[in-house]
Design goal:
This protein has 259 residues and is of the alpha+beta class. The protein is built from 9 helices and 8 strands. The mean pLDDT is 84.
C-alpha cells in the first residue's frame, strides 16, 4: 500500500510538473492531424495580441511575428482551447475581401428628374441600365394609367438606386476586382450617420500593399463621382464648419443692424 500510494503521489507530482509539455504535445498532434496551423500561416488571435506570421511551432509554445515586427508567444494548448483566425484560406483562394460602406445624406435622396436623367445617360456604364429601366417603368406606368403629376403614383428611378447600379457596373468592369467571387453593392439600414451603401467584393490579389491600393482607388473614385448623382456624403460638423457658420451669422447680424 505504501508503494502504491507513493507511486500515485509521484504520478500526481509528475503530471503537475510536466503539465504544459503534455498538453502541448496533445495540442500539437491535434493541430497537425486537423491541418489547423502551419509555419508561415497568418494567425490572428486578439486574446494574446497576436496578428502576424507563424515562425515557430514548438512543443509548448507557438511564436508569431506580428506585423509591427514584435514577437508574441502563445501556449500551444491555447490554440485548441481558445479560438483563433487563420488567414491562410484567404491567401489560397486568390482573392481578398473589400467590405466597406460610405454614408449618404438622407436629405439628398430624390427621384431622377429629366435634367439629371439626361446627364447620367451620357455615362457609358449607366446608359444601358437607364434605357432599359426607363422603358420598363414607362410601360408599367402606361399600363396602370396613373396620374404621374403626383410623385407617389407609379414607378420612378431614384438617384440612390441609380448610384447603386452604377457601382455594380463599375466593379464588374474593374480590372482588379475578382469576378468569380461574391460581388454586390447593398444598401444597409439607415443610421444617424446617414444611409450606408456597402461595397462587398474581392480583389484579384491577396498581397497586402496591392490590396490596400486597389481598395483606396475604388473608394477614391466613389467619393469623386457621388455628387454626379446629386447625392451628398454624410459628414459630422467640424471646427471649420462651425467657424464658417458663426462668420455667416455675424455678417448677417451686421447687415441687419446696418439696415
Amino acid at each position: 500500500m505504501l508503494i502504491v500510494s507513493g507511486l500515485g503521489a509521484m504520478t500526481a507530482v509528475m503530471m503537475l510538473v510536466f503539465k504544459d509539455p503534455i498538453m502541448g504535445f496533445v495540442a500539437g498532434i491535434q493541430l497537425s492531424v486537423n491541418d489547423m496551423l502551419r509555419i508561415g500561416d497568418w494567425l490572428d488571435m486578439p486574446s494574446y495580441g497576436a496578428d502576424g506570421d507563424v515562425i515557430e511551432i514548438g512543443l509548448t509554445t507557438v511564436k508569431v511575428q506580428n506585423w509591427d515586427k514584435t514577437i508574441t508567444t502563445i501556449p500551444t494548448y491555447a490554440l485548441i482551447s481558445d479560438s483563433f483566425k487563420n488567414w491562410q484560406g484567404m491567401t489560397a483562394s486568390g482573392g481578398r475581401r473589400i467590405k466597406r460602406a460610405i454614408y449618404l445624406d438622407v436629405n439628398s435622396i430624390k427621384f431622377l428628374d429629366e435634367a439629371l436623367m439626361a446627364r447620367l445617360n451620357k455615362a457609358k456604364l449607366l446608359a444601358p441600365y437607364l434605357n432599359e429601366k426607363a422603358s420598363e417603368i414607362e410601360a408599367h406606368n402606361q399600363k396602370e394609367q396613373l396620374d404621374l403629376e403626383l410623385k407617389i403614383n407609379g414607378r420612378r428611378l431614384t438617384n440612390i438606386g441609380t448610384f447603386r447600379a452604377y457601382l455594380v457596373n463599375y466593379l464588374q468592369n474593374h480590372a482588379h476586382i475578382h469576378q468569380d467571387m461574391t460581388l454586390l453593392v447593398r444598401q444597409l439600414a439607415a443610421e444617424d450617420k446617414g444611409v450606408p451603401m456597402q461595397i462587398y467584393a474581392f480583389t484579384n490579389t491577396t498581397e497586402w500593399a496591392k490590396y490596400e491600393q486597389i481598395q483606396s482607388d475604388v473608394f477614391d473614385h466613389i467619393y469623386a463621382v457621388v455628387d454626379a448623382f446629386d447625392l451628398r456624403i454624410h459628414q459630422a460638423l467640424g471646427g471649420a464648419d462651425v467657424r464658417q457658420w458663426q462668420a455667416l451669422n455675424h455678417e448677417k447680424s451686421k447687415e441687419g443692424a446696418h439696415v
